[in-house]
Amino acid sequence: MLPVGSLTRPRREFIDAFLCGCQHRTSFPCRVDVGLLGEGVTYAHGSALRDMTAPIAKLSFWGVRGSTPTVDPATWRYGGNTPCLELTAPDGTQFILDCGTGLRMLGSRWAAPNGGGNHETHIFVTHYHWDHIQGIPFFAPLYAENNEFHFYSFRSKFLGRDSLKQVFEAQMALPYFPVDMSAMNAKRKFKEVEGGDTFNIGENKVTARWLNHPQGCLGFRIETPAGTVVYATDNEPGDPKLDESLRELAAGADIFINDAQFTPEQLNTTRKGWGHSSWKEGVRLAREVGAKTLVLFHHDPDSTDRMVDSILRQAREEFDSVFAASEGMVITVGATGDNVQAHMPGTRTTLRREAQFRAKVSGVTEGGKEFQEETVVRDISLQGALISLQNMPQLQSELQVTMQTPGEDGLQSSMRLKGYVVRIDAGAEKGQIAVGVVFTD
């Protein structure tokens, strides 16, 4: 037992890796499946955990950044990989939405022991801009002959027939890449789809609609037995016909993933015509069409974590259920009731110390009530801490932490920190919740 106000010797730990079977340190969070959280608690937006016999769909975020990847430490918390999502439907059908740099991490996850991934996967590409296709050459499962991939996208007026296949071949052609697509041994099938098309894959209904983006873009609606996911990135409001197309696509969605790259001010001035949207437009549309949960997506490469935090706060003031997409985030859609559950990635691998610091913590509960309580911080790093609380705060909400730390001559001093909740698990003691916090100040 450590005395209060003391630290152990520093050590290295794997904060997320043990859940995913990973054996290496990485700066990216692994996918944390709800089903693997045996001792943990998955955050359920507005409801308790439901009977796991109900059909569920899992949506994992592997890349959330728009336009170009970032490695800036100021974007560390939300992540810098370009768009890539993985959706596993209740019938086992596997979908991938876009092929940005996040696709490489998904491929590495599938290649790991017990990494998941089906031999047959359906990949939807919204459009042909670099940030949505640049992960393809680095997707390891494409090089394994026992895999089969079905690709879906539209025929570009600039490329003609087999547009998607042409795009993939061109980015791996000499002198841009050391090997061409012939090195990929997996079976590949390409299907052209247009806005307005509807078709079934397994037990799931897929609908495509045109969005307003330079050179064309598709949004996708996937209706599963567990609920409906709508993926509508890279869209700029203002075209009446395409605005109506998006409303039809998003109507009543359980999860509505919407482009939020620009601020409302940018969208109305310097970034008008660039083909993107804002959090305010997403909130307005989600409210109009009765979407249950809004996910702000395609963060601008110049938007730091604090800027995204600010955008999220503003959105939550106007809409109840909003998340800012974060690498490693997993959303689980259930079949009944308030059916959205989300698990955020834990803090990245970092230098941690066991601690015994008395602290006062204040924040907002998942029910929207302010709270303040005294506790002991038992696990701390330069970036964050694991704090035991009786109150359950909102994911991605801000906490104020005031810790009593040893000062000069053995006197106690106060250290005030701000942080954001990135993880909620069951506590070691009954009635306690373990809250993972990333410090920002």
Classify the secondary structure makeup into a structural class. Answer: alpha+beta
The string of secondary-structure elements, in order, is: EHEEEEHEEHEEEEEHEHHEHEEEEEEEEE
Q: Report the sheet-strand fraction.
A: 25-35%
Major β-sheet annotation = 9 strands, mixed
Shape: globular
**Biggest β-sheet: strands ordered side by side in the sheet:** 2-17-16-3-4-5-6-7-8
Low-confidence stretches: 1-52, 347-352
Q: Could you please say which CATH topology of the largest domain applies here?
A: Metallo-beta-lactamase, Chain A
Written account of the structure:
This protein is of the alpha+beta class. It has 2 domains: 17-343, Ribonuclease Z/Hydroxyacylglutathione hydrolase-like (Metallo-beta-lactamase, Chain A); 350-439, Beta Barrel (Thrombin, subunit H), CATH 2.40.10.220. The chain has helices spanning 17-20, 102-111, 163-171, 240-250, 264-268, 279-289, 305-316, and strands spanning 11-12, 43-44, 57-63, 84-88, 94-97, 120-124, 148-153, 187-192, 198-201, 204-211, 217-224, 227-232, 255-259, 293-297, 322-324, 330-333, 340-343, 351-364, 370-381, 384-389, 398-406, 412-426, 433-439. The strands form 3 sheets. Strands 2-17-16-3-4-5-6-7-8 form a 9-stranded mixed β-sheet. The protein has a 7-stranded mixed β-sheet with strand order 9-10-11-12-13-14-15, with helices on one face. A 6-stranded antiparallel β-barrel has the order 18-19-20-23-22-21. It is globular. The two termini are 29 Å apart.
